[in-house]
Design goal:
This protein is of the alpha+beta class and 258 residues long. A four-stranded mixed β-sheet has the order 2-1-3-4, with helices on one face. Helix 1 runs antiparallel to helix 5 and helix 2 packs parallel to helix 5. It is globular. The N and C termini lie far apart (43 Å).
Length: 258
């Protein structure tokens, strides 16, 4: 199996879970407003479709992806939203079918990427496993918006570990994004996993610490819930600051959720 195999399997499972939530929605259900301002459920799925298409291009046509980058440079702030707006106008059955087709192609192509190959992206090039992890994070986050809209409570799964890992790894990115110098030392992060175990990052003796629920930490770093309602605590000024700006996704600083 490709080294990306376990991550692609998790991405498939996360996508299938979200698919199950929207598969039987009536047409007017796709027009329900979600917590993302201006985005309906159709926009959430359209965004995943758009990004899966772009990721597929990065894997199969690097020259084509370079053209996407050039287009994005003309309107960095609106490029992604424009893609979601366009695809959200498709009839719901066609939008869902196209997302299913595209994501299946992407998953298969990621499994075929040679170990050691780096895929171009909007940030630094990444491995197929990292690409799958990033797609998992986005699928989970946008799926949470859809679930919230429909009043669906999704069970926490072990897949959250990869999302939490991105959240931890993007600490310095979040500081730099806000024009701040990243802390010199590592943080200790200890999160309660869905199965009752503890997931950890960083040295045990680190002065700055973050503790709490893994699911809540993932909600925080994907900016799906305000910190005040989450079981995530910080020890140390630097750790406290991080929790106010944490951002696992690329792009400009997010507004967060009130």
């Amino acid at each position: 199996m490709s080294t990306a195999g376990p991550m692609v399997a998790d991405l498939r499972a996360e996508s299938d879970d979200l698919d199950g939530i929207v598969a039987d929605l009536p047409a007017d259900g796709w027009a329900e407003a979600t917590p993302a301002p201006g985005w309906r459920i159709a926009h959430q799925i359209a965004h995943l479709l758009w990004t899966d298409r772009v990721a597929l291009t990065a894997v199969t046509d690097e020259a084509g992806f370079a053209a996407v980058l050039a287009q994005a440079a003309k309107d960095p702030a609106g490029f992604v939203d424009a893609g979601a707006d366009e695809l959200a106008g498709l009839p719901p059955n066609r939008l869902l079918a196209e997302w299913r087709r595209t994501r299946a192609l992407l998953h298969d192509e990621l499994l075929a990427v040679a170990d050691g190959r780096k895929l171009p992206w909007f940030g630094p090039p990444m491995s197929a496993a990292s690409m799958a992890t990033a797609r998992l994070m986005e699928t989970w986050a946008h799926g949470l918006d859809v679930a919230d809209t429909l009043g669906v409570k999704r069970p926490a799964t072990a897949r959250l570990r990869s999302i939490a890992h991105i959240g931890v790894r993007t600490r310095d990115f979040a500081f730099a994004l806000h024009g701040l110098t990243p802390p010199a030392g590592q943080f200790r992060v200890e999160l309660g996993a869905p199965d009752g175990s503890t997931w950890t990052w960083g040295p045990e003796d680190a002065a700055a610490r973050v503790t709490g629920s893994a699911e809540d930490f993932c909600m925080l770093v994907t900016q799906r819930r305000p910190r005040a309602v989450l079981d995530v605590e910080a020890i140390g000024d630097d750790a406290e600051k991080w929790l106010t700006i944490a951002q696992a996704f690329a792009g400009p600083p997010g507004p967060g959720r009130g």
